Structure formats: structure tokens, C-alpha cells
Amino acid sequence: WYLIEHLGYPAGRVAVEKSLKLNGMNKRADVVVYSATGEPFLLVECKSTDVEISQQVFDQAARYNLVLRVPYLMVTNGMRHFIAQINFEENNWHFLQNLPACQ
């Protein structure tokens, strides 16, 4: 509950194991945080501490984001964290040092 207790994200806007449909298949995003307007804001893909953060992990999160279209994406294994800001208009992204404030 790092997002809630340390960063002040409202608990009511954090969904754990959020169901979604991807190419007709049922999938689950580990954590989705919603903005004050109810739009998906942040997607977090969580892995076990013994799982290396690899391109496959990023690809999985990116596939989920095809459905959710969040502006912020995070992958973590509890030891290493990577945060990216997605720009859909320019079709690019860049890494951030910290998670943004919840909007």
C-alpha cells in the first residue's frame, strides 16, 4: 500500500487485480489507479522479488495499456521500479524518477 500510505493516493481510487479484456481474453492488471474524474491514471505491474524486470514484463504492461490507455505505467519487483510517462498523441514515452502526484 505504498501508493496510499506514502504517496497519498486516495484508497478509493486504487483497484487491485482489475479485470480487463485483451484480444477477447480475460486478463488482470495488478493495480490501476484512477484520477479524480474516474479515468485510469496509473497502471502498476507487480512481479515477485525473484523475477527480473525484463522486456517481457514491460511488454505485458504495454499490452494491458492498449486497453486502459493510462498516461503513467510502472513495473516493479519490489526491489527495482521503473516508471514511464506515456504520450499517446506523439506515440512515445520517457522514464521518470518518481511517481506523479495523483490527479
Supply database-style keywords:
17% helix; 103 residues; alpha+beta; globular; 2 helices; 6-stranded mixed β-sheet
Question: Biggest sheet, strands in spatial order?
Answer: 1-2-3-4-5-6
Tell me the β content. 35-45%
Net shape? globular
The end-to-end span amounts to 18 Å
Q: Which runs of at least 5 residues are low in confidence (pLDDT < 50)?
A: none
Helix content: 10-25%
The helix count comes to 2
Note the run of SSEs as H and E: HEEEHEEE
Integer-rounded radius of gyration: 13 Å
The major sheet is characterized as: 6 strands, mixed
**In terms of structural class, how would the helical and strand content be classed?**
alpha+beta
Q: What's the number of extended β-strand segments?
A: 6
Compute the average pLDDT: 89
Q: What does this protein structure show overall?
A:
It is globular, with a radius of gyration of 13 Å. The protein contains two helices and six strands. A six-stranded mixed beta sheet has the order 1-2-3-4-5-6, with helices on one face. With about 100 residues, it is α+β, with helices and mostly antiparallel strands.
Brief summary:
The protein is α+β, with helices and mostly antiparallel strands.
Topology:
Layout (H helix, E strand, L loop, with lengths): L1 H4 L8 E9 L2 E10 L5 E7 L8 H14 L3 E5 L4 E7 L4 E5 L7
Parallel strand pairs: 3-4
Antiparallel strand pairs: 1-2, 2-3, 4-5, 5-6
